[in-house]
Write a sequence for this structure.
């Protein structure tokens, strides 16, 4: 996003916060900061403080362009809370399995830039603010994407104490966090003239990724359905439910593709490695077992949980292969250790950073035999077993050759 904006607009100065050093960015105009994800670090705080300093130099003839994408909640922060306490609070929230909107409600209560505070500070000085937002959250709520630095209508953490107490997390919070939330300073009332200077636009979201996946599945000969772009819930419950229902769709079709997207949650109780996508597909393996089907779930940013994988893939042979290696999927689910399970099988999806983030993508592909026992159409239009097409009955389903590009 930053590279495109710099190529199109006469940007005088700015800051860039990301999780890795940028390439081809003019450092004479842009200050670059490398922060961490999913927990903030010194680079995250440095980026937030630099942004506030930039905003405080703005005037009525200035335009502040804010490019927001998923991950900004961690990589871009300014807070009166000490970093160690901030990381402890963030960590408890992320392990709890709370919906992202509840997590961000607490984050906004501890921040000086989240919840529209960055935009309000700039607009109060007379600057015009434009937020261009890549959404990674179901429903595209601008107040929650990156915790909404330009969302001036956000609650700014008004429900934070309620969220923590309702879910039994209040006592886990460091004393500095509890004190901040109990004695939060009053938010200044924004005049209409200030609000009118702030404009936000969603420029990309999950629906684009889902439509691209559907287009490719159709090109490969599958009858395709978009299941949902708002999948939410606990990953280990969503996986079996989605797979079972998807496999029942269009029973008369020889080859089906069911595409969905969203963002599930994981309640971490074990000490393993993994992420919501890996846990989702591992929990779905029994529903896929023995079927000519394959299920993929991955993060569109190329990162899933605390691993370098984007997600994982299962098919009808996964559990049989696991048993030959002495792997019990239930053991790995109990320990939230889906990464180790799929690494042993060689079924992790590793794309590297993709440069974008529009939440998670789920793709189920299945092939069936017709009433005369013939297989589904191939990409050439012939059915396997006819003309010159030959098929090895011991081979994995053709859908297994799915390639993921970022």
């Amino acid at each position: 996003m930053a590279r495109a904006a710099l190529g199109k607009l006469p940007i005088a100065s700015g800051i860039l916060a990301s999780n890795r050093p940028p390439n081809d960015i003019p450092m004479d105009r842009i200050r670059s900061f490398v922060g961490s994800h999913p927990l903030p670090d010194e680079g995250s705080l440095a980026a937030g403080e630099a942004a506030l300093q930039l905003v405080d130099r703005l005037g009525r003839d200035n335009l502040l362009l804010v490019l927001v994408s998923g991950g900004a909640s961690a990589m871009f922060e300014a807070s009166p809370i000490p970093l160690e306490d901030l990381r402890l609070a963030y960590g408890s929230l992320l392990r709890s399995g709370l919906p992202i909107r509840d997590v961000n409600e607490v984050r906004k209560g501890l921040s000086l830039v989240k919840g529209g505070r960055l935009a309000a500070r700039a607009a109060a000085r007379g600057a015009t603010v434009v937020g261009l937002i890549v959404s990674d959250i179901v429903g595209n709520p601008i107040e929650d994407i990156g915790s909404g630095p330009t969302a001036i209508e956000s609650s700014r953490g008004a429900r934070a104490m309620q969220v923590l107490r309702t879910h039994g997390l209040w006592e886990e919070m460091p004393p500095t966090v509890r004190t901040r939330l109990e004695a939060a300073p009053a938010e200044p009332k924004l005049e209409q003239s200030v609000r009118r200077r702030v404009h936000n636009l969603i420029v990309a979201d999950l629906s684009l990724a889902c439509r691209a996946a559907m287009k490719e599945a159709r090109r490969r000969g599958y009858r395709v359905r978009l299941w949902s772009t708002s999948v939410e819930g606990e990953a280990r419950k969503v996986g079996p439910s989605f797979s079972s229902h998807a496999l029942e769709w269009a029973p008369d079709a020889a080859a089906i593709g069911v595409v969905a997207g969203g963002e599930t949650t994981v309640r971490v109780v074990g000490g393993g490695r993994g992420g919501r996508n890996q846990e989702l597909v591992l929990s779905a393996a029994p529903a896929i077992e023995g079927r000519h089907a394959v299920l993929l779930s991955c993060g569109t940013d190329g990162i899933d949980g605390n691993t370098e994988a984007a997600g994982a893939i299962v098919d009808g042979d996964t559990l049989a292969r696991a048993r030959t290696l002495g792997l019990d999927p239930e053991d790995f689910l109990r320990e939230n250790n889906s990464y180790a399970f799929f690494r042993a099988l060689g079924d992790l999806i590793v794309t590297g950073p993709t440069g974008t983030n529009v939440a998670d993508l789920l793709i189920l592909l299945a092939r069936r035999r017709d009433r005369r026992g013939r297989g589904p159409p191939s990409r050439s239009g012939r059915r396997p077993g006819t003309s010159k097409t030959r098929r090895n009955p011991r081979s994995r389903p053709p859908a297994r050759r799915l390639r993921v590009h970022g």
In short: The chain is about 35% helix and 15% strand. The first strand starts at residue 14 and ends at 18. The first helix runs from residue 2 to 8. Residues 371-406 have pLDDT under 50 and may be disordered.
